[in-house]
């Protein structure tokens, strides 16, 4: 279990290192905060009212690890049940996944376990799976105990952190932990010799309609 703290950091100017590109998918019930986590990670922003994701949104962001720059191609999937059948389109071929639940909602934790089972059964054999207990800023309304999530993560070989898209708690950390665990010499990762910094420019093809409560999707 990773407990690393820190934030995506730019590479030192003049540093030459390889760039590894990985596909990452976010899965979880509607309104657990998937889109809010991605928005915080990619743009450093949080919106109290976040548009619901339709189908999936695509964004990119990079983090730097010593001499390696990891570029994430992020697919933020919709949490509504009617979009569940589309999920395999997005996690197929993904090297990493973040399964998100809301610490104030026990049902979303049960749903997260279902997503983990599906990934273990149908996704790439070596996929790195992280479990994110989001909305940690609402710990006074907690319904999912931290220790229960830790035990589940350890039993299933998952990275685990509690996060808050609102306060930015552990948002960068969980992406960094995934980046560190991914094999940098994987055939699917592109390695180009060039200097790179944190990619605070993002590709965002998000579509949405309607407003939902704080930290939706």
Automatic annotation (TrEMBL):
<keyword id="KW-0342">GTP-binding</keyword>
<dbReference type="Pfam" id="PF00071">
    <property type="entry name" value="Ras"/>
</dbReference>
<dbReference type="GO" id="GO:0005525">
    <property type="term" value="F:GTP binding"/>
</dbReference>
<dbReference type="GO" id="GO:0006886">
    <property type="term" value="P:intracellular protein transport"/>
</dbReference>
<dbReference type="InterPro" id="IPR005225">
    <property type="entry name" value="Small_GTP-bd"/>
</dbReference>
<dbReference type="GO" id="GO:0030947">
    <property type="term" value="P:regulation of vascular endothelial growth factor receptor signaling pathway"/>
</dbReference>
<dbReference type="GO" id="GO:0006897">
    <property type="term" value="P:endocytosis"/>
</dbReference>
<dbReference type="GO" id="GO:0005886">
    <property type="term" value="C:plasma membrane"/>
</dbReference>
<keyword id="KW-0813">Transport</keyword>
<dbReference type="InterPro" id="IPR001806">
    <property type="entry name" value="Small_GTPase"/>
</dbReference>
<dbReference type="GO" id="GO:0030100">
    <property type="term" value="P:regulation of endocytosis"/>
</dbReference>
<keyword id="KW-0653">Protein transport</keyword>
<dbReference type="GO" id="GO:0003925">
    <property type="term" value="F:G protein activity"/>
</dbReference>
<keyword id="KW-0378">Hydrolase</keyword>
<dbReference type="GO" id="GO:0030139">
    <property type="term" value="C:endocytic vesicle"/>
</dbReference>
<dbReference type="GO" id="GO:0120084">
    <property type="term" value="P:endothelial tip cell filopodium assembly"/>
</dbReference>
<dbReference type="GO" id="GO:0008593">
    <property type="term" value="P:regulation of Notch signaling pathway"/>
</dbReference>
<dbReference type="GO" id="GO:0031901">
    <property type="term" value="C:early endosome membrane"/>
</dbReference>
<dbReference type="GO" id="GO:0071425">
    <property type="term" value="P:hematopoietic stem cell proliferation"/>
</dbReference>
<dbReference type="GO" id="GO:0098609">
    <property type="term" value="P:cell-cell adhesion"/>
</dbReference>
<dbReference type="GO" id="GO:0012505">
    <property type="term" value="C:endomembrane system"/>
</dbReference>
<keyword id="KW-0449">Lipoprotein</keyword>
<dbReference type="GO" id="GO:0003924">
    <property type="term" value="F:GTPase activity"/>
</dbReference>
<comment type="similarity">
    <text>Belongs to the small GTPase superfamily. Rab family.</text>
</comment>
<keyword id="KW-0636">Prenylation</keyword>
<protein>
    <recommendedName>
        <fullName>small monomeric GTPase</fullName>
        <ecNumber>3.6.5.2</ecNumber>
    </recommendedName>
</protein>
<dbReference type="GO" id="GO:0001702">
    <property type="term" value="P:gastrulation with mouth forming second"/>
</dbReference>
<keyword id="KW-0547">Nucleotide-binding</keyword>
<dbReference type="InterPro" id="IPR027417">
    <property type="entry name" value="P-loop_NTPase"/>
</dbReference>
<dbReference type="GO" id="GO:0005769">
    <property type="term" value="C:early endosome"/>
</dbReference>
<feature type="region of interest" description="Disordered">
    <location>
        <begin position="189"/>
        <end position="217"/>
    </location>
</feature>
<keyword id="KW-0967">Endosome</keyword>
């Amino acid at each position: 279990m990773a407990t690393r703290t820190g934030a995506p950091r730019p590479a030192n100017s003049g540093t030459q290192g390889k760039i590894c590109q990985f596909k990452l998918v976010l899965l979880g019930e509607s309104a657990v905060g998937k889109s809010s986590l991605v928005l915080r990670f990619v743009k450093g922003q949080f919106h109290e009212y976040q548009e619901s994701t339709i189908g999936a949104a695509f964004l990119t962001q990079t983090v730097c690890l010593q001499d390696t720059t990891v570029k994430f191609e992020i697919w933020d999937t919709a949490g509504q049940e009617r979009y569940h059948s589309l999920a395999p389109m997005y996690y197929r071929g993904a090297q990493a996944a973040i399964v998100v639940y809301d610490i104030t909602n026990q049902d979303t934790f049960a749903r997260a376990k279902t997503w983990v089972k599906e990934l273990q059964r149908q996704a790439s054999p070596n996929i790195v799976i992280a479990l994110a207990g989001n909305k940690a800023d609402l710990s006074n309304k907690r319904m999912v105990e931290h220790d229960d999530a830790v035990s589940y993560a350890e039993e299933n070989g998952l990275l685990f952190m509690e996060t808050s898209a609102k306060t930015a708690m552990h948002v960068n950390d969980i992406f960094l932990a995934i980046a560190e665990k991914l094999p940098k010499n994987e055939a699917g990762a592109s390695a180009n010799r060039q200097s790179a910094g944190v990619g605070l420019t993002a590709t965002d093809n998000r579509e949405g309609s309607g407003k939902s409560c704080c930290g939706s999707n």
